[in-house]
Amino acid sequence: MSTTLDPNASPAAAPVKARGRVLPAPVTPPEIALIGVLVVLWIALAAATPAFLSAGSVIPLLVEVAPVALIGIGMTFVIITGGIDVSVAGAIMVCSVITGKLMRDNAIPLWLCLVVAVATGAVLGLFNGVLIAYGRVHAIIITFGTANLFLFIGLRIFGSTPIAGMPNTLAWFGRGVDGRTVGVPNSFAITVILTAIAWWYLRHTPGGRHFFAVGGDPVAARLAGIRVQRRILTAYVITGLLVGLASIFTLAKGTSNLDQSVGSGQELAVIAAVVIGGTSIMGGRGSVLGTLLGALLVQTVKSGVIQLGWPSQLSDLFVGVFIVVAVGTDLLRRRARREP
Amino acid sequence: MTADTAAPPAAPTPTGRSRADRILEAVLTQRIVLLAILIVVVVGWLMYLSANGYLSADYDFDYMSAVLIDAVPLALLAFAELVVIVSGRGGIDLSVGAMVSLIGMIFGFAYGQWGWPLPLAVLLAVVVGAVLGAVNGFLVARIGFPALIATLATYYAYKSIAMVINGQKPINSAQIQELYSLTKSVELPVIGPYIPNVPLGVFTFLIPVLVVLWLALGRGTYGRRLYAIGTNDVAARWAGVDVAATRMRAYVTSGVLSGLVAVYITAQFASARPDAGTAGNGLALPAITIAVLGGVAITGGIGRIAGVLLAALLIVWLNAGIILYFSGNTGTQFQLLALGVVLILAALLNGLTTRRFGGGD
Predict the structure, then answer these.
(1) Is residue A309 in a domain?
(2) Which of A41, B112, B243, B291 could form a disulfide with B296 if both were Cys (CB 3.0 to 4.6 A apart)?
(3) A118 part of a folded domain
(4) Complex-level ipTM
């Protein structure tokens, strides 16, 4: 930040003074606002129901946040490039049903579960990515189509019955005592670490900045020498990889059963977290830190509604209101400053 | 979406083109021609399978007519998506399914519990639909929300209210159960004996909507304005079109059509269910699929009612055949496959024709 600000300088002149600084602030104003909302919510919920801040309530909350926030990282990449992926729910189903069946029938060890889930996710992501990057069709259409395909594949592998009696192989990622390191759930810790890596990659490496360039203006990005199609493909593969890992979290947090509803509604939950986190659906702008905060906010509202004894479906109403408020204030703020 | 800096390849020279070339171009660029061919192929193939005993029941004109009962809500919601997507600027309405759930519950209260007369209850459903659609329209057209975000938010909100409003319980009082007569099949006067019985909903819902929409979009000034803002809203503004009001009305139309579908689905299932439009995959996804299959360009400004209608018929008749070919749950699973494959192929074809012939249908 420049410290010698001329008080008479018009706002339009400011970018000239801050020459060479292309990065936005490490923590953007919407993210600070989100942190504020989260703190206020936590204080209010703690005051209303003293049990809210107990370990018995916070740890399940963090375990629930992990898969959404994790996929949210990939979805942030995708949305920054100007795309979207609504096939996440089906992909979660395929990854978890394959891993779950292998775990039950062949008792494969933990590392092999990870490899299988992540590899499956990568293949599904690659399929989306190739169609979108090289088929040159809008991402929402392709992923609506592949969402149906993935659901079909998942349901076919399920057969007609849920998978019952899975062994306890994945306890290290679960919500039990085995799944914690110094009190923090491992799945959430992994999510935070991966978010930090993605945050650094997107902000401080040329490769990361290319995603913003592609989303901001693909034609200009191509003229600047960026392989646009390859960047778009990469974003979907990253999402696929993270969907694979998130499926492991989903398998681990459940009981020994896995039924056909796995993943249902997750695609919209992830998109909601990304959007509340301040990433622009038009592409070219966004941050994974905001996504993590957005996922935390959504899950806080969900568990808060339940702990207050309200009907659990009411939380969706708050999610909708949060999306409108978050995106609306951003729109109005930009309009006031005459930014695009 | 993606960068396409290369100039479009020069259009094939008109001289010396064979008839086969022209037919190929018509099939690829005229979505209606392609869909008509596909319908004939699919129906013919299914009838062939039926004649050889591969299907668990007869696939004949009676059956095809009976399954039109499912085509009515699909087609109406696909029309809703047509209007919204054509309005441009990333137009899409993810909230139609949630609107159907919520309006269905309100209609259920009015008709099934408060004892309102049917016309008044239907009017209420349409008015509530217009209001819910106007919320979407206000966010998108006036404030400038991306449509995907605005309708995602209202999807959550409407779905939640529909669930909570009656404690997750459906309304199926005696009046609602008798509504089923609205959708049963009837024999037409005069020509009735010679053709299969047709579900009543086709005449009470589908055809009136079709006529009104065709008049408004194909023959009225509203259609001109809608296609203008969808093609280029800056140019439309310079041409004196009230862009915000026109786009707003597209979303209100979507809400009104959702209101009609809510009444229809309540009648069809003889019950107002809080998850009528959101259970499973929901209703929005198939509606968007059918609109795209019908040749509506997701970028706005392009799309015709006839194409969407044919796409709805194709999907409904294909699904009806799949259900007969596979038994039980397997059939619904293969319907997912069919919907997915058809959507992806239609989208890739749209892209291909745009590149090859510059601008599709």
Answers:
(1) no
(2) B291
(3) yes
(4) 0.82
